[in-house]
């Protein structure tokens, strides 16, 4: 899948929880960043190697172990820590997510680049913009690359991330969704899980089918989400 010719955007479904990992980068330089590396690090690295891509960074949408690895329900999920043993790249995480990232993965501050909303990372000739979208977790973030939005567990095609977990905040999720709603309708939405009949859709299409995006005032949101 490629949104624009100069872009590399690959959506890879991975693991038993229908997660999506993404490769985002520049076709001309073949440099890529990996979003939410988890579950099968060897398979992902093989995928990168087979396409002659050069991995230059890892990006975390949020700290949950199904996205970046770590202990979950008594199991250890492979993730960024295992990637780091094989590829010396930094993990770009929102500054409010740093403690959670360290806790679940065991990595240190020096393995991370702490970013804030509006920061950007240039991969080859492609710019990836970081958007802070708290709600599912305090430091959840989305990545905007030209007319695509990698939306993690903030926005799914038919829903949004859970806001009843430790660190979740329903009110913040409301504001994050309002922010994402203001992006152009032709933005291609690339969620953190394959929870819908289609793996991706435009924001305009999501607005037609996603009941959470349809809620347009904070009071109504509070009634629905608590
Ligand atoms: Fe999550």
In brief:
The chain has helices at residues 41-50, 65-68, 80-86, 98-105, 170-181, 203-209, 211-214, 218-225, and strands spanning 7-14, 19-26, 31-35, 54-59, 70-72, 75-77, 91-94, 112-115, 120-123, 126-132, 141-145, 148-152, 188-191, 201-202. It is α/β, with parallel strands linked by helices and 226 residues long. The protein has a single domain, classed as Metallo-beta-lactamase, Chain A, CATH 3.60.15.10.
Q: Can you describe this structure?
A:
- It contains 8 helices and 14 strands.
- It has 226 residues and is an alpha/beta fold.
- The protein has a single domain (7-153, 188-201), classed as 4-Layer Sandwich (Metallo-beta-lactamase, Chain A).
- The strands form 3 sheets. It has a 6-stranded mixed beta sheet with strand order 1-2-3-4-7-8, with no helix packed on it. It has a 6-stranded mixed beta sheet with strand order 9-10-11-12-13-14. The chain has a two-stranded antiparallel ribbon with strand order 5-6.
- Helix 5 (170-181) crosses helix 8.
- 46% of the residues are buried.
- The mean pLDDT is 96.
- The structure holds fe (ii) ion.
- Fe (ii) ion (FE2) binds at residues 62, 64, 136, 153, 161.
């Amino acid at each position: 899948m490629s949104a624009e010719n100069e872009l590399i955007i690959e959506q890879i479904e991975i693991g038993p929880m229908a997660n999506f990992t993404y490769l985002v980068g520049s076709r001309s330089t073949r440099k890529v960043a990996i979003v939410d590396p988890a579950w099968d690090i060897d398979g992902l690295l093989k995928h990168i190697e087979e396409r002659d891509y050069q991995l230059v960074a890892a990006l975390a949408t949020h700290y949950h172990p199904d996205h970046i690895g770590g202990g979950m329900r008594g199991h250890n999920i492979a993730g960024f820590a295992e990637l780091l043993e094989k590829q010396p790249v930094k993990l770009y995480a929102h500054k409010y997510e740093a403690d959670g990232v360290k806790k679940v993965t065991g990595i240190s501050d020096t393995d991370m680049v702490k970013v804030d909303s509006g920061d950007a990372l240039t991969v080859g000739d492609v710019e990836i913009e970081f958007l802070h979208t708290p709600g599912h977790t305090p430091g959840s973030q989305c990545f905007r690359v030209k007319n695509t939005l990698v939306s993690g567990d903030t926005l799914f095609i038919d829903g949004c991330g859970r806001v009843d977990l430790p660190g979740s905040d329903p009110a913040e999720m409301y504001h994050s969704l309002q922010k994402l709603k203001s992006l152009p309708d032709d933005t291609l939405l690339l969620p953190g899980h394959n929870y819908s009949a289609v793996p991706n859709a435009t924001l305009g299409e999501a607005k037609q089918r996603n009941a959470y995006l349809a809620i347009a005032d904070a009071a109504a949101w509070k009634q629905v989400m608590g």
